[in-house]
């Protein structure tokens, strides 16, 4: 069963066409990645999928529901880990999770139980009473991940989940995402890190100038085009990989 289906998806910002008539399908339990240079349209596609903005034309369905007609029902079943850390600095680690749980009408007792389990999951159980400003960058990303799954989503959307992290913190986040995937959570991510795509993604869509250049598994792309995934990326987009 497909969790997400897009047909002739177009998004315009005035005269700028950010997404130019793309098609893709994402299956249940799959980890699907969008790769491409800045301005390729990756984040725009993600925002349309999680109902942050409507498409200009075309069709996008999530759980077989149209993103323009059923945004509330879709949002109740998904989690979003944005690129920027937008945690509330005035609250503690635990309070950030509990306040976010209210958006999903999760009962207080259930929210507290889920938050405690999630803090163990992201290895922050000893930081429950810590203010956000006292966390390292890696801890903030792990907390943002925990917050994004407080509602036990069927679909988790991750925009550059490990940007700016040191290698150890990056690998820690990867381990958590792999554990979520083992629980049949469908993952969609954008990334600039080719190793991240190779390790996590069942398939990737390489985008450039609003179009999808190709969709395939990382291993198939490397076999078809030769070299590692970064070489494939360069060959298909003609652009060097620029890490944030």
Main pleated-sheet profile: 6 strands, mixed
Gap between N and C termini: 35 Å
Shape descriptor: globular
Taking all residues together, what is the mean pLDDT?
Answer: 93
Placed side by side, the strands forming the largest sheet appear as 6-7-8-3-9-10
Sheet-strand content, in percent, reads 25-35%
Order of helices and strands: EEEHEEHEHHHEHEHEEHH
The low-pLDDT segments are none
The helix count comes to 9
Structural class: alpha/beta
Overall number of domains = 2
Quote the CATH topology of the largest domain. Rossmann fold
Number of beta-strand segments: 10
CATH level-two architecture of the largest domain: 3-Layer(aba) Sandwich
Question: What is this entry, summarized?
Answer:
This protein is an alpha/beta fold and 244 residues long. The protein contains nine helices and ten strands.
Task: Describe this protein's structure.
The chain has 244 residues and is of the alpha/beta class. It folds into 2 domains: 168 residues, P-loop containing nucleotide triphosphate hydrolases (Rossmann fold), CATH 3.40.50.300; 66 residues, Ribonucleotide Reductase Protein R1, domain 1 (Orthogonal Bundle). Strands 6-7-8-3-9-10 form a 6-stranded mixed β-sheet, with helices on both faces. The protein has a 4-stranded antiparallel β-sheet with strand order 2-1-4-5. Helix 6 links the parallel strand 7 and strand 8. The chain is globular and about 50 Å long. The mean pLDDT is 93.
């Amino acid at each position: 069963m497909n969790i997400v289906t897009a047909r002739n998806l177009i998004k315009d910002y005035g005269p700028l066409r950010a997404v130019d008539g793309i098609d893709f399908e994402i299956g249940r339990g799959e980890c699907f990645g969008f790769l491409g240079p800045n301005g390729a349209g990756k984040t725009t596609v993600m925002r349309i999928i999680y109902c942050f903005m409507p498409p200009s034309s075309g069709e996008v369905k999530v759980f077989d529901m149209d993103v323009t007609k059923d945004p509330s029902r879709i949002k109740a079943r998904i989690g979003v880990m944005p690129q920027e850390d937008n945690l509330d600095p005035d609250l503690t680690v635990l309070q950030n999770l509990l306040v976010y749980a209210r958006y999903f009408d999760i009962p207080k007792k259930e929210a507290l139980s889920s938050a405690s389990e999630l803090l163990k999951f992201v290895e922050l159980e000893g930081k429950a009473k810590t203010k956000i400003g006292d966390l390292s960058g890696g801890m903030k990303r792990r907390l943002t991940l925990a917050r994004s799954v407080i509602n036990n989503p069927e679909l988790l959307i991750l925009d550059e989940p490990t940007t700016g992290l040191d290698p150890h913190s990056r690998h820690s986040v990867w381990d958590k995402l792999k554990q979520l995937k083992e629980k049949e959570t469908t993952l969609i991510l954008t990334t600039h890190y080719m190793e991240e795509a190779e390790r996590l993604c069942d398939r990737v869509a390489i985008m450039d100038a609003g179009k999808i250049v190709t969709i395939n598994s990382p291993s198939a792309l490397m076999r078809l085009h030769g070299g590692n995934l970064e070489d494939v990326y360069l060959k298909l987009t003609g652009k060097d990989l620029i890490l944030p």
